[in-house]
Fold AAA+ ATPase domain-containing protein.
Amino acid sequence: MMMGDTMGTFGSSMASLFFFWATFQQIFPEHLKIAIKEFLLFSDQIINFFSPYIVISFPEYEEYRFNHAFAAIDTYLGAKAIGKAHKIRASQVKESKGLVLKRDEAKVRDVYQGVNVWWEIVTATDGDRTHKLTFHRRGLEIVTGSYIKYVMEEGKSIEAKNKKMKLLTNNPSYNWDTSKKSLWRHIDFEHPASFQTLAMDPVKKQDILQDLEAFSNGKEYYKKIGKAWKRGYLLYGPPGTGKSTMIAAMANHLNYNIYDLELTAIQNNSELRKLLTATSSRSIIVIEDIDCSVDLTGKRRKRDGDLSVKKDEEDQSQSRVTLSGLLNFIDGIWSACGQERIIVFTTNHMEKLDPALIRRGRMDMHIELSYCSFEAFKVLAKNYLDVDSHPLFGEIESLLKETKIAPADVAEKLMAKNHKVDVDGSLKDLVESLEKRKKHQRDHGDGHKKKLGGKKLGIFRGLF
Ligand SMILES: Nc1ncnc2c1ncn2[C@@H]1O[C@H](COP(=O)(O)OP(=O)(O)OP(=O)(O)O)[C@@H](O)[C@H]1O
Ligand SMILES: [Mg+2]
């Protein structure tokens, strides 16, 4: 009954509308209709002119190209005042990280330096979305001067925190094509290493952490002093002391990608340059075992005026990666190829490296990872056995003072056998092994296993 009524009313309204339209068409001549249309458009402009509000649009695509500002705004608004949101979207981008909650609402109000702004997401009929920012004319200077920049930076930093990290390795150059993508292959990086579980001297660890923090927050500082925003770390020490593990911990701490640069797959300096300029910001570029990757030592012969020597040097630099190619890259090309990068070299043989490569300023921090100290052992005991003390700790402490053992070997002894943690058994095992080593080292000197000339598998390459 009611439905019939409603339909009846609707029908008669439509009939009146058609009648009105037909009359309008007959009464008003064409030019008058155009004039009315123009008036309406003009009045719209008048309203806009007198309106105290300004609207800025940020479309998702501009001439078929993705607008990164749109993405940054999306992330910023998604994270904005999540506590006040009515609709939230949840996703998990990294297994090791919790859920990422995003505000999922079409309209969001924001206040910045006392200026009220309103964001609205508008979807066009073709599905393209646009973020519209509305604010009072009074706030124009603040909004265009600093608010938009602030939103972009916040958005990008949230994106960086949530993004999946990647581990990239260079492809051999015969596999390169014209796209930058073909230079590096990547996998998702999900390594559990952290500074918390890294066994080393706690004071040194703290120093490194502070250095990394200062670096990653140092954008303004580096700009002020006019230096490229990069930092070099040289990690050195015997095998199994945690160099690769520390790189993974650094990447996890800063949320940076890792570029594992395999020098032996590179033919010459120009390939090196191509690879390095294709790396992205917020990344760690790693050259493992720099001493045995490429013969970088002794490549810088003294010029003695003999042209043939010069020629020889030039030939070399055309045909292979040289020390000077690497140095040029570290010093020079950096500034031209983006920002916020860390370079890490690792070596087991510090003494083999050319002093030019490791001088301060190129490698800002030299970090020695050495044999297991008692402090480092305590971290491992906590990680593997979940104990802070044990009657055997005293004996282990004095044995560690007299014996050289890599944390990797200690870790192996403490590792659960068949998934069973046996504190007493593991520690006894360790004591026995330390005693054996002590005797061996007393009888034969410390001579830790000499590394073979070639590059061995680091943790990174082990992942492929
Ligand atoms: N300082 C450490 N803290 C915690 N675990 C460690 C440490 N050092 C080594 N380990 C353990 O030993 C394994 C091997 O260590 P890692 O690969 O980091 O050694 P490395 O110094 O890179 O050795 P290499 O010189 O042979 O490349 C790691 O997977 C880790 O489990
Ligand atoms: Mg290693």
Remarks:
- The two ends are 72 Å apart (CA to CA).
- The chain has 17 helices and 15 strands.
